Every structure is written in C-alpha cells, then in structure tokens.
Amino acid sequence: MIETALIIETVVKAVVVLSVVAAMGAFATFIERKVLAFMQRRLGPMHVGPYGLLQLAADGIKLFTKEDIIPQNTIKPIFIIAPVVAAASAFVAVAAVPYFPEFTVFGYTVHPIISDINVGLLFVMGAASVGMYGPLLAGLSSANKWSLIGGARAVIQLLSFEVVSGLSILGPVMMMGTLSLIDMNDYQIGGVSHWLIWKQPLAFVLFAIAGFAETNRTPFDLIEFEAEVVSGYATEYSGMRWGLFFIGEYANMITISVLVSIIFLGGYNDLWFIPGALAMLLKVSLWIFLFLWVRAAWPHIRPDQLMWFCWKVLMPLSLINVLITGIVLV
Amino acid sequence: MSSQVFLASSIIVVLVIAIPILFLATGKLGPKNKKQKEKNISYESGVTKSIGNSNNPFSVKFYLVALLFVLFDVEIIFMFPWAVDVRELGWFGIVEMFTFMALLLAGLIYVYKAKALTWQ
Amino acid sequence: MLKAFDKKLEFTKEKSNRYIVKLEDLKRVIGFLKKKMGYNFLVDITAVDYSTYKTAYPKRFAIIYILRDKNFDNLTVIKSYLNEDEIVDSITDLYKSANWSEREVWDQYGLKFKNHPNLKRVLNHKEFIGHPLRKDYPITKNQLCTKTDDLMDEMIPRLKAKGYENQEEVMFLNLGPAHPASHGTIRTFVALEGETIISAVSEIGYLHRGFEKSCENHTYNQIIPYTDRLNYCSAILNNIAFAHTVEGMLGVELPQRGQFIRVIIGELSRIIDHLVCLAANLVDMGALTNYWYLYNPRETAYHLLSKLTGARLTNSYMRIGGMTHDLYDGFKDDLKQCLEDVQKGMDDSLSLIEHNRIFQDRAQNIGVVSKEEAINRGWSGPNLRASGVNYDVRKQHPYYFYDTFDFDVALGSVGDVYDRMMVRFEEIRQSMRIIEEAMKRLPNGDINVPDHSITFPKKQKVYTTIEGAMNQFKLVMDGVKVPASEHYSAIEAANGELGFYIVSDGSGTPYKVKVRPPCFFAMSSLPDMIEGEMVADAVLDLGSLNIIAGELDR
User: Structure pTM?
Assistant: First the structure.
C-alpha cells in the first residue's frame, strides 16, 4: 500500500519536475532572445503572438514536425542515441535537486525532491558528466569534420572544467560536512549573513566559472560557435534531434543555477520577507540573467586559451582553496 | 529510505529516457525523408568533393588532457569522502591528504614543464 | 630615369611616367627599379589585347606593370609588347603580390610566365576554356563548369615544404565557400593538425562575373552601376574611383561643390564600410552585441543614402563629370543625426571591448604582418597602415581638396588583428572630422562639369529645344567620348588603393578596363598568414582584412 502511494507520488513529482524544467528551459530560450534583444537595442521576436510570446509554440511545432534527416555515412544507431543521452543526462540530474521547502497539501507532506539521495551533489555532478557523451558521440558518429572538431572541443572543455568544478566544490563540502543538497541548504538557515558565499568566495567564483564552461555559455561557447566550427557536434542534426541537444543544454543551465543557489546563495531558505520558494526562483532567474548578460557583453576565448585558463589558473586556485579550507577547519 | 531512493531513481531513469524518445517520435509527424542524395551529403562548407573523411585519424593532442583529467578526477573522488569527514579526521587527515595532493601537484608541474598543456 | 640603369637599354618614354621596354629586358628593369630606385610597391599587373584596336601596335599584346616607389610619391608604368607565344619572366621572386596578379593575367589573357611557382587560373574555373579578356572571346559566351577543384595540386607541395610527407597525418578541411565566417563565397582549404592550421590554400572566383569584360561593350556611364557591385559595402567610393579616372582621361575637373559632395558621400561610405568590417569581425569572436551597436548606425546611414540616391546598397550616384543630382533639402540635419548615431555606436562598442582582456587576447599578436611584408604583398589602405606604413592616397596624392582638410592618418604598430581593427575605428573618427569640415566649407554652385559633351544638359533644354534633345540622345546612345589614351588613377577607397587602368580608343565605350581591387592582394596573403595559427584565428584574420567578394572576384 505504502509502495503504491510512493510510486504514485514519485511519478507525479517526476513528471511535474521534468515538465517544469523542460518548460523553463524552453521559456529560457525565449527570455534569452528577449533579453539579448533588449541589450542589443532591437526588439527580438515580435510577430507571433503578443510581444512574440507564442514564438515558443511556433518553434516547438517547427521542431516537432521537421523532416527527419540522417545524412549519409553516419553511424546510425549512435547518431540517434547521442541526443537522447544529452537530454536524458540533463534530466536525470534534476532528480536529486531540492527546489522548494517542504509543504503540505491536504494534510499530505510533500518533499519537493524526486529522490532524496544523501549524496545528492555527487549524483548531480555524475549525471552531468554523463552528459558529455552526447556531444562526443554526436561528433564521432556524424561523419562530418566540423562535428568531429566540435566533439573534440566538447570533450576537452567539459573534461577540464569538471576537474575545476569538482575541486572548487570540495571547500564547501569540507565546511558543511555533507554531500546532501538538503543538508547544505539547511546549513545556511538564518539569512544572508549565513550564506556560504561569504565563507567560500573563491570556491564560489571558481564554481561559477566552471558552470559557464560546463553549460557551454559565452565566453566558453566554443563547442558550437558558428563562426569557427559551424555548429560543432550538432552540424548534421536537425529537427527534434537537434532540439534535444538544445533542451539538454538549457536544462543544464537551470541545474547549474539551482546548484549555485543551493550551495552558495542560501538555497530555499526564507529571505527577509520573501518565502523560500520565491527566493529560490528569484535566485535561479537572477543567475540565468547573468548567463545572458555575460553573453551579451563579452567575446569568447580560443580553445587553447581555455585550456590555459583552466589548467594553469583555475586548477591551482581551486587546490589552494582546498588547502586553506583544510588548514582553517582543523 | 534506501528502497525509496532506488525506486524513485529507477522511475526517473525510465522517464528521462522515455521522454526524449517520445519527442523523437514526433518526427514522424513531419514530411517523409525522400532520401535525396544531395540533401544527405555531409556538410563541408558547400564543397561536395572533399578530401579525406572524418574517420581519418585526427590529431589527438587533447588525449593528454583527457589523461590528466582521469588523474585528477580520481583524486577528487578520493577527496569527497575525506572532505565530508575532514573535521573528525583532524590533522592526521589533513596531512595525509595534502601529501597525496602534493604528489599529484608535482605531477601537474611536470606536465607543465613537459609542455603537454601548450596546445600546439 | 631608366638611362641611369643601362646605357644600352632600349626604351621609349610613352608618357611622363610610362616606359616601353623590350620583353627580354622587362625583369631586369623591374629588378633595377625595385633594388636601386626603391620601387618596392607593385600596384598591379595587367595586359591589353590590341588585336581590334583602331591603330596598329607592334605586337598583339602588351603587358603592363604599375609600380610605386618607397614613399609612394611616384608612379611608374612599365609596358612591353609581346605576342601570344612569347613568355614573360615572372617577377614573383621580387614581389609576392605578383603571384596572383600573374595568375590573373594568365587566366584572363593567356600570357605565360616563366618560373612562376603555380601558374593556374585564379578568377575563372579550372574547367574554363579560353581566355575571356582576349578580344576574340565573345562577350556573351557562357561556359558551364561543375567540377570542384580539390586544390590538392597546391596543397601537397605546401605540405611537403612543411615536412609532412604523408597526407594521412593531417585532416583536410574546407573553410568556405559556404561557411558562416567566410564573409562571402571565399574558400580556404586547410590542412589541420588538431586545430592548428599547417598549410592553407585559397580559392577565389566564386563571385566572378566578368566585370572587366562587361565593361568592354558598355558606355562609360553604363559601367557606373557595375562598379557599385565591386565593393558593395561602399558602393559610392567605387563610383567615384571610376568617374575620377575617366575624368582624368577627359582632362576635366568637377566644380567645387561637386568635389565636396563626393568627399562627403565618399567618406560616409568609408564609415559604412568600416562599420561592416568591424561588426563582422567582432561577431566572429563572439561579441554579438557590438555587431548591433555598429550595425544600427549603418542603418541610419543607409536611410540617408536611400533618401539621397534612391538605393540603399548599390547607389550609382556618380556620373562621368558629376553626379545625378544635388543634395536634398534637410540633408544637413540627416547627416548630423547619422554622424551622432555613428559616434554613439562606436563609443558603445569600444567601451565593451577596449578594456576587455578576452578581446585583447584574441586580437593581439594574431595574424601579424610586418611593414616590409605588407608592402611586398601589395597591401594598401587600413591593412597596410595597421602594419605601420604611412600610405594614404588622400595624403600622398591628394584629390578633391583632401590636402586642405584637417585629418590624421591612423597608423598601427604591430600589424595584427587588433591594429587592423583599431585603425578602422580611428579612421571612422577621422572620416567624421572630414565630413564635418566639408559640410562647413560646402560651396554653392554647379555640381556637374558644364561641358555638355560629358554631362547631360538641363531637362528643361532637352524637352524644349532640338539641340538639347539631340545632345541628350547622343550622350545616351554613344556615351561620353573619351580621347584615345591609357590611364591609371587611384583613390583611397575603404579597403585601400582602388585604381582603374583604362584604355580608351576614342569611342564611347572603353577598350579595356582593369580594376586594381585592394582586397585581391590582401586575400592572396591570407594562406601564408594563417599557417601556424588556429582555426579560430584564421576566421579573425579573414575578417580583419575586410575581404569583399564582389571586389575580389569581379
């Protein structure tokens, strides 16, 4: 009996979270176009619906009904699996992320986390690193040189920055003594002054930079920067296959935003008069806005500069951070 | 508790694989692929007669980076459990781990010197 | 001048700066000019087919070398007559810019060069049969060419020179013709190791329309719209360059107001051209917002131009001996608004990148070309100035009162992508200064040459008097009669020295027109520039040279 209730609850939660994340991802594309347009003194989508709001639906219909093209010489099964891997790994990551404080509906307490894994952080990071296989497989199976270069770029970029994000998160983990995201959130109860960002500023900056790189955002958008590698690993993809990569990318963006908010920015604890859930939403939105702002403001860097930056600047810095944290703690 | 976690995780794994596949299935709504030869040619900036293909060996300088990654990622995996319990382990843990890190750092410095991280 | 070289040398002085030498002396003479007289800037090489010319020439063809000396003060033209079967000594060992120029002469006229490293077609397709600029090639004859050139004939020697014997070690990749960063249909074929370019070969001609051949059966004024399509980002400057050359042959000078209008509109075109180049270059490095900041003022400028000329891009505003019409009422205010927009867009864009470390790391020390190299490669304009060479046609050979305007020449110091971009930013500023000064000094009066054998009479006269109607009719049907002569003249276009070499036989249509497109020479050096750099840098190099396919391929 309990089992059945649990299954129903989990399925409902999973469907709700996944659809919300997917919808937010889709909406983020619209917001991105609008915000960039605002910063670049133009209007952005305006023709479909009021203020172009229905552009989203139009894009969706286009993606869903586009002709399915698999170019010649591709390794077909891998070519088909790659986008599924990208999207699925991005979605799996959201399973262990708590979004809101617990709340009660009709006397039934809901934990807004699909699966309360006590090593939630590891789970999220593990799932995110599986996501690397998407671009890699796509790049290798497309039988296209641009895809191959894009795939190679994706692998080095994601691999390198995973080291940085892993090392930079060690400091906070050492301080909080837990890998559960809920415990991390609870550690920061008590207002802005209890946020971890004040205790681990270096870790915060490093993790944020790694977040930009892992989600392939400017200034690290080398993987599919069109002026250089056309469309990178996704050159040969079209229609919904391409759309899945896209959804995965935006879901990753949201996951990173949520992670930063939970680990460093006080999570879903109440903020002054703002209820926790709303505070969380605000933080995530702010973070996504930052992604867009940086994209509007900066050019992007070259692959070798990226590697140089990662291995010669960020890596040593994150090691130093671990060192200092260790010495201070003990 | 743990059974709940496994159950939830398996449910979500099924779902996240099902949803993309469902999305892909909508492709059947669109026009049929007519298997036109020109359309299915792989893209290389509009040049149809290209030299070599993407299955030819590709210079693999970045393999070195990948190897380094494995090195450091394993290190990080060792460090996570240590990080959680660093308070209890005290000075002993700190010294142990820092020795380990110093060894790896020495490796990294060697890699710099060997110029494996310069792209060219 | 040539007397000093060799007492026994036979030569004729055709004009003050044009010498005719014997074919076998050609290379010696040019070598002497370069080494002893400091003529180290090869402007252009071209040829003329005299087979249908009204007066007889000793041989069918003439090959023509146009050179400038080291301070760019003197222009010397060396000419030599030859027949189809005679072979010219290649001067590619003296001037790197001669490489593609000689290829073009071979392509268009079928004249062979001895010791040329790679004498193959450059503008026409490799399957093309015949040499289109020969007079016996019919203007309307089409040829359908379909096979892609794999370019391996050029690539393999280059690879071998770098020590790559085995082709399996590298990946071959086509950057263009249809690539997001190739700014027009330009193909660069590269061999990659990782992402580093080991060796590169460029193929141009995808936009070759036979401009020079088309000129040979159109009257001078009918050619003006064709010149629009050369550098379509600054169409009016091409109009001016062509009209200026023909006016030089006619020996007429525009009334002051006409000259000032040419300066104002020409500088505005230069601004537009630089804005396009900078915007595209910045977008290539991912700075998307700069693109819009720079493109929006361009839009204001296009509004102004379409109000003035009736067209946004291909304006065709100039005519031989003047222009279609005077400025409209309220032009001054529109121009002021336009300049304000440009200033604001430029300031905003610069504030985004000027102190940005990413931008500096991307642009500095990329695609460095030294002074000597740039001159040897025949670069001109902003690209040459970015390398630190002070050569601006507006200063060295002032036309249209440029010597009386107060403006500075922007010079770079390193010759990298950063310098090329910053020189352009500065040139926009200087152009704005010129425009402002010209607007203040703009005199009243006529805009066209009052000679009605060149410009149309007033419409009033055409409709009411038989002389006026006949005058207009003759000008339209026969064109402007240009006295039989050969003439080279250049102006400073947005991309550099844009020159026309025109041969006239006294009729209303030119006997031969040769454009000296500045980006042809910039493009010919691209393969050497990008070798050893990464794909991402190659894209910036291409963008910073401002290659315009319309002008490059003609």
Answer: 0.87
Residue of C288, C293, C541 to mutate, testing the A interface (most A Cβ within 10 Å of its Cβ): C288
- pLDDT tens per residue across span C378-421: 898 899 999 988 888 888 888 888 888 888 888 888 888 999 99
A 224-243: CB under 8 A from B = 230, 235-236, 239-241, 243
**Nearest CB to C286; choose among A149, A300, A303:** A300
Which CATH class for the B2-113 domain?
mainly alpha
* 3-state SS, one letter per residue, for chain B: CHHHHHHHHHHHHHHHHHHHHHHHHHHHHCCCCCCCHHHHCCCCCCCCCCCCCCCCCCCCHHHHHHHHHHHHHHHHHHHHHHHHCHHHHHHHHHHHHHHHHHHHHHHHHHHHHCCCCCCC
Q: Does A145 touch chain C (CB under 8 A)?
A: yes
Q: In order along chain B (120 residues), what is the average pLDDT of each group of 10 residues?
A: 70 79 76 74 75 65 68 78 79 82 81 68
Gap between the Cα atoms of A56 and A33, Å rounded:
11
* Dist CA A128 CA A92 (whole Å): 8
The C-alpha atoms of residue A203 and residue B115 are separated, in whole angstroms, by 28
Question: What DSSP state is assigned to residue A94?
Answer: G
Least CB-CB distance to B66: which of A155, A303, A330? Answer: A155
CATH class of the domain defined by C211-553: mainly alpha
Architecture of the domain spanning C2-114: 2-Layer Sandwich (3.30)
pLDDT level of residue C426 (50, 70, 90 thresholds):
very high
Using CB atoms, pick whichever of B50, B57, B61 lies closest to residue C174. Answer: B50
User: In chain C, whose CA is at the least distance from the CA of A218?
Assistant: C286
Q: How many angstroms from the chain centroid is the CA of residue B12?
A: 22
Tell me the CA distances in angstroms from A204 to A198, A207, C248, one per residue in order. Answer: 9, 5, 69
Q: Say which range, A283-297, B106-120, C82-96, C98-112, has the weakest mean pLDDT.
A: B106-120
DSSP code of residue A26: H
Q: Read off the tokens for A99.
A: 């979004």
Poorest-confidence range of A207-211, C20-24, C336-340, C430-434? Answer: C20-24
User: B40: which chain A residues are within 8 Å (Cβ-Cβ)?
Assistant: 69-72
Give A173-201 pLDDT, tens digit per residue: 888 888 888 888 888 887 777 888 888 88
- A-interface mutation test, from B10, B26, B56, B71, most A Cβ less than 10 A away: B26
pLDDT reported for residue C446? 86
**CA-to-CA distance for A82 and A20, rounded, in angstroms?**
23
- Could A39 and C353 be called an inter-chain contact, meaning their C-beta atoms sit closer than 8 Å? no
* Residue A264 distance to chain B (closest CA, Å): 17
pLDDT at B53: 67
Residue A95: partners with Cβ closer than 8 Å, 6 or more residues away: A14, A17, A114, A115, A117, A123, A127, B8, B9, B12
Cβ neighbours of B50 in C, within 8 Å = 172, 174
Instruction: Please name the amino acid found at residue C513.
Output: V
Q: What is the spatial distance between Cα C215 and Cα C229, in angstroms, rounded to a whole number?
A: 13
Confidence of residue C11 (pLDDT cuts 50, 70, 90): confident
Task: Map out the domains of chain C as residue ranges.
Answer: 2-114, 211-553
Give the end-to-end CA distance of chain A in Å, rounded to a whole number: 48
pLDDT of C3 reads 62
